[in-house]
Amino acid sequence: MIIETRAYARAGLLGNPSDGFFGKTISISVRNFGASITLYASPELIIEPQPQDTNEFRSVYHLRDAVSTLGYHGGVPLLKAAIKKFVEYCEQQDIRLHNRNFSIRYSTSIPRQVGLSGSSAIIAAAFRALMQFYQVEIPLPVLPNLVMATETDELGITAGLQDRVIQCYEGCVYMDFDRPIMEAQGHGNYEPINPSLLPKLYVAYNTDLGKQSGRVHNDVKSRWLKGEELVVATMADIADVARQGREAILTQDIELLHQLINRNFDLRTKIYNISDRNMSLINTARACGASASFTGSGGSIIGLYRDDAMLNRLFVELKKINARVIKPYIS
């Protein structure tokens, strides 16, 4: 029996990054890109490395470029951490696992280090494969917590729940991470939104080499924990953008949604340092008449466009700064 599972890239539409601050967000799955897991029974447990996991390089420059885009260890540590966290969860739930072994390998088409959540997609797909192999059901609201804990607890990656929720639920989801809700049930309230209600959306991402993610939120998080007024108030305002955005989507107020996407990013600039490269993405898209905000921590943007003429302008202008534009496939 061969098990094949998949998880998709994601883009934060509104409220990003308030998910790590008891806020609210709206995210979409971007099915244009995905991570796949293949798992099959074997005499021993084997994690099959992929070309990006190699320790052989053509030159020091090849090594530099590989580390810049893939990190230091590739995808194998993600699979090891996912398997470990899955086994620990089953032990905590008194779920007895059969003793058959398996081989597991991954592949991914998700551009790395541009804020489309490639690492968590590999982990989410791995959990789905393990659940099938061992015939274990993990409640859907709980699964994002385990995917995130795999990254934060096992690999030391700074991560929020938003990405993991949308990769587990897929489609379009409004997420409420209000503190009393989180403390009462251990996870947020997750409300799927019919993707057919969404307006014309584009996603654009850098095709230049990126940098490893996971460190962007550290300073803001510490300032928020200290109660710095600017950070606390701004993060609350970012969360409220998502609340308003939910209503705008449901009532089909496209102009308000356009404004909210821009406001989300503009609020972010009050507390985060934005690189020239990322500002160029935002400014180029807005100069075309589109709205623009980060999909994650930087490297890719999302927004609304009005018509095909505007979309074509986005293709042309963003290509000039080494960025690729796609229409996200969400359903």
TrEMBL record:
Keywords: ATP-binding, Kinase, Nucleotide-binding, Transferase. It comes from the Bacteria. GO terms for molecular function: ATP binding; kinase activity. Residues 80-171 form the GHMP kinase N-terminal domain. Pfam families: GHMP_kinases_C (PF08544), GHMP_kinases_N (PF00288). Residues 247-309 form the GHMP kinase C-terminal domain. SUPFAM superfamilies: GHMP Kinase, C-terminal domain, Ribosomal protein S5 domain 2-like. This is GHMP kinase. It comes from Arsenicibacter rosenii.
